[in-house]
Design a protein that fits this description.
Elements: E1 4-7, H1 26-39, H2 53-62, H3 65-95, H4 98-116, E2 124-126, E3 143-148, H5 155-169, E4 173-176, H6 183-196, H7 201-215, E5 221-227, H8 229-244, H9 247-250, E6 253-258, E7 290-296, H10 300-304, H11 306-312, E8 321-325, H12 333-341, H13 356-363, H14 377-380, E9 383-385, H15 388-396, H16 414-417, E10 421-422, E11 428-429, H17 446-449, H18 455-458, H19 470-491
Parallel strand pairs: 1-9, 3-4, 3-5, 5-6, 6-7, 7-8
Antiparallel strand pairs: 1-8, 2-4, 10-11
Length: 492
């Protein structure tokens, strides 16, 4: 069974954390981020390994093999050209006249864009509807699911990703295409986004789509899934949206990232639960109810992003709990994240008309109709709790909390932080803050909240598997409790 490291979300007072861009100048951030990027370059070959045959078969069902190989070949050509141009940059800057250097640079950019053009497509894509089942868009009419891809992903790759998400979670998924012009160009764009807060076209499109869904009164929930550089885009979109939209509107949003390259994740406190009279007593719930991050330990991108920030930049705002697959490598969204964490049941068939009870059973690793599905070892793994990071956060706090805690668990933020919530009577409940009975005084140490618990108990995303939802699973649990109670009464 996989070893899963669990990093609790930041739960300190509002004065303890700040957005990184507000604490340092852009030039210093650029130097610092470039230095960290260079230190993780030895993990570059592990981005594509291990190879997963099963994932390849799934991809071939979603897109043609020819298109897949063409995209990979183009990315390889772009990488070699950009590496050559990087080597020639300094000599050309020194030897060429300014006008010739600028003209040559523009020609190189144009050449790279022309080579990458076959991999591009529309900015917005939609998951394909399975022909053998009812429209997934009709199954959950009050939900909107959005996916933002990462580096080195063409239009066909994005289509394969959103088709897989749609098949896995039983929803129509809207894909926002973060266009790629080669790995080195993508990394440069990441630096500009992280250090200069540069709102690229991808960020602007994401803000527009998310805002449209969030303000729609018919929409009750917006789920944002992001991979790699998509994590940066998601974090910048959140920065913009929280400045425009009220907390009750932002409360519709849930965010799940995989291999995130983001250097911060903002989640402002809820005004209704924050004690504004004392700057040190801000033990609050947050306006975005659920943020979770998933990472592989030896994936270069999160080692530059979420894992580096969580471990080293202790006072930088990075909301959400982190699930780390210890000893795992690879950065591909389907092969190295979805397949190990949420493998498709065999056969690869969504059952949209199953009852709540059947979907609940499937999500727990068993097929409806009594058929045993592929074991979800990831979800059933007992987490290895990282207790050092919460202690480091506490010790590095510029303003000490009024109460000494390693991490906090309360019902207002439990779903966002991926830890069990607390019922009104002080007992822990499962699947996050589903009851909403906790208060800001419901503070417990990490050992009481997460030690000995499985990923299934701490994560929220899995509750959506196979077209189910946290609400449906809650209904099923209540129904199971009533049945158990009735059976106990009959035995008497």
């Amino acid at each position: 069974m996989a070893s899963i490291k669990f990093i609790p979300s930041q739960m300190g007072p509002v004065t303890q954390y700040s957005i990184r861009a507000l604490s340092s100048g852009p030039l210093w951030l650029l130097i610092q981020d470039t230095g960290v990027l260079l230190t993780v370059l030895p993990y570059l070959p592990l981005l594509f390994f291990p190879r997963n045959t099963k994932a390849k078969i799934d991809k071939e069902k979603s897109r043609s093999k020819v298109k897949s190989w063409m995209d990979s070949a183009i990315q390889g050509v772009l990488f070699l050209l950009e590496a050559l141009l990087l080597v020639l940059f300094i000599p050309a800057l020194i030897s060429l006249p300014s006008i010739l250097f600028i003209a040559a640079a523009l020609l190189c950019v144009l050449l790279l864009r022309l080579i990458a053009w076959p991999t591009q497509g529309p900015r917005i894509l939609y998951s394909s509807e399975p022909t053998s089942s009812p429209r997934t868009a009709d199954q959950h009419p009050h939900e909107r699911w959005v996916f933002i891809n990462g580096i080195c992903t063409g239009s066909s790759g994005l289509q394969a990703n959103i088709d897989r998400l749609s098949l896995l979670f039983g929803r129509q998924v809207v894909g926002i295409h973060n266009q790629s012009f080669g790995m080195l160009s993508d990394l440069l764009e990441c630096l500009l986004q992280r250090c200069l807060s540069y709102y690229t076209m991808d960020v602007r499109v994401a803000c527009e789509i998310l805002k449209e869904y969030l303000v729609d009164e018919e929409v009750k929930k917006v789920v944002l899934v992001a991979h790699s550089q998509g994590g940066i885009i998601a974090s910048m979109a959140v920065d913009a949206l929280v400045a425009e939209l009220p907390g009750n509107i932002m409360g519709k949003l849930e965010i799940y990232t995989f291999g995130s390259a983001a250097s911060h994740f903002h989640n402002p406190p809820s005004a209704s639960t924050t004690d504004t009279k004392s700057p040190t007593s801000g033990l609050q719930s947050n306006i975005i109810p659920c943020i979770e991050h998933y990472a592989n330990e030896y994936d270069m991108v999160p080692r530059w992003g979420v894992l580096y920030v969580m471990s080293n930049l202790l006072n930088n705002r990075y909301a959400g709990s982190v699930f780390v697959r210890a000893g795992a490598s690879g950065h591909m969204f389907v092969e190295h994240y979805l397949d190990p964490i949420f493998p498709l049941p065999r056969p690869h068939k969504l059952i949209p008309n199953t009852s709540i009870q059947q979907r609940h059973a499937i999500g727990n690793g068993h097929a409806a109709n009594g058929r045993v599905e592929e074991a979800l070892s990831y979800l059933d793994a007992v987490v290895d709790l990282d207790e050092a990071i919460p202690v480091k956060r506490q010790n590095s706090a510029p303003v000490k909390p009024l109460v000494q805690i390693k991490a906090r668990v309360n019902s207002g933020t439990a779903t966002s932080q991926g830890v069990p919530a607390i019922d009104g009577d002080g007992s822990l409940n499962s699947h996050g803050a589903v009851n909403g009975h906790g208060t800001k005084n419901d503070d417990v140490v990490v050992e009481q909240g997460a030690r000995g618990r499985t990923v299934r108990e701490l994560s929220r995303l899995w509750l959506y598997l196979n077209g189910s939802s946290p609400e449906e699973r809650r209904e099923q649990e209540a129904r199971d409790r009533r049945i158990s109670k009735d059976e106990a009464l009959l035995k008497r």
